[in-house]
Amino acid sequence: MAHFSKTDLAELDKIFRINLVNSVTGIKPANLIGTISENNIANLAIFSSVVHLGSNPALVGFVQRPTDDVRRDTFDNIMANQVYTINHVAASCISQAHQTSAKYASDVSEFEACGLTEEYFPDWPAPFVAQSQVKMAVRLLESVPIQWNGTVLMIGAIEHIVVDDSVLEDDGHIDPSLAASVGVSGLNTYYRLSRSTKLEYAKPV
Amino acid sequence: MAHFSKTDLAELDKIFRINLVNSVTGIKPANLIGTISENNIANLAIFSSVVHLGSNPALVGFVQRPTDDVRRDTFDNIMANQVYTINHVAASCISQAHQTSAKYASDVSEFEACGLTEEYFPDWPAPFVAQSQVKMAVRLLESVPIQWNGTVLMIGAIEHIVVDDSVLEDDGHIDPSLAASVGVSGLNTYYRLSRSTKLEYAKPV
User: Fold this and answer.
1) ipTM > 0.95?
2) Which of B23, B128, B129, B153 to mutate to test the interface with A (most CBs of A within 10 A)?
3) What does the alpha-carbon distance between residue A114 and residue B204 come to, in Å, rounded to a whole number?
4) Phi and psi, residue B20, nearest 5°
5) Contact assignment for A63 to B86 by CB distance below 8 Å
6) How far apart are CA B146 and CA B152, in angstroms?
7) What is the DSSP letter of A172?
8) What's the pLDDT tens digit per position in B74-95?
9) Are A189 and B197 a contacting pair at CB < 8 A?
10) Which residue among B58, B63, B137, B180 is the one 20 to 30 A from B8 at the CA level?
11) Chain B residues 97-126 with a CB less than 8 Å from chain A
């Protein structure tokens, strides 16, 4: 077994550390967050930190990297408009989705630059990804600063869920393998999902 | 496409809503959190909400469900001892890992009840899972209450990473498919991972 102590982690080569610590938590969901700027430019960015926070009310979080050193269009747009969309990345769109992580100028829409299609629903001023079979409309509730490293937990209320009928099971579960939704490990390695087993609610035996 | 508005979500059958909203964020990592009680009982519980917060310093979060209504051994033990472990769930251990979600009495160790093996490393008073090929020792930094639903974001510093040599790539990336680590969707559906592609750092083209 390889062992890295806290001291080792601090002294590791930067890229090695980034790869190691970004992959140690296991598979992460690959999602695209869509926003619109005050100049009406549609923005799209890939995030692997979307996390379920609660189902009633339906709440979702994501971790925004520090905003004090570089331009963060997603963060700025959400703070200005309060609304955003979260869209699964499908296996057929991995390269386009990954490309949204490139640092485009703020007057460039990643939809156009990366080859994904904007889609709008009535009364929701943020762009969805037409290629995604699972998507949601989210309204910001709170941005919680994380004092330890300058990241921000963005907490939002899910106001709409739109899902292809073919991936929705009778009990409400969205099967991400039917949607060909992918996971990501570390910064840049993508994984397909294959269903192993669905287990019953566990009780002591 | 199926569409659920905020109103629909509030009015859905409870189980359907839980399944839907727990699966809408995409694949989640399946991890076991190990703690020890003040009475020296080893506790183990499955969580799907572990999230990367930063790599330098190495920080990890997880979402603790509300603690005011029911006994939460993991939360109580961490608040008492400050330390815990996070261990990947391997495909060979899905049923044992899922079984840790059953409500055992607080004097029962889920390791023994569910058939997983405790493992201890020097100077770390929290149990690891011997069957996991990827595991970390974490020290609590802060518990951040989420005002909207009573959940708590538990923020910890990674003090040790232990990983099987066979799953660690030269660039520091841990390949979760080599570790046979699994993902979970919703509450109870488990997925195996197969590597699709590793992409380069993206730049505008």
Assistant:
1) yes
2) B23
3) 9
4) -65, -55
5) no
6) 5
7) S
8) 999 999 999 999 999 999 999 9
9) yes
10) B63
11) 98-105, 108, 113
